[in-house]
Amino acid sequence: MRAYVLIQVGTGEVLAHRAAIARVDGVVAVSAVVGPYDAIGLVEADTLDGLERITVEGIQAVAGVTRTITCPVRGSGTAIETSHRMTRRTPTEPPATAQTA
Fold first, then answer.
1. Cα separations in angstroms, 56 against 31, 33, 42, 79
2. For residues 82 and 99, what is the distance between their CA atoms, to the nearest angstrom?
3. What is the pLDDT of residues 39-64, one digit of tens each?
């Protein structure tokens, strides 16, 4: 199973704590971000209990971490890749769904 963990740390401390979070067993990646959270971690475990253990006993135990939200990935736990094909048409060309008389 995979989960994304939204992580808040003390003001101005994300870069100092990112390395410590990355060393937690089960953390696959951690990135500093801009917004209401300071970092997002990708974690992997065999079970939901394992994800909880990584978050509570690992990430939350890092000094400076003030809050986490764990977002388990639905489905098989593997990344879902999608592809959107965009076609370009000229402004005078009717949309593909329009019928011309």
1. 19, 21, 14, 24
2. 29
3. 999 999 999 999 999 999 999 999 99
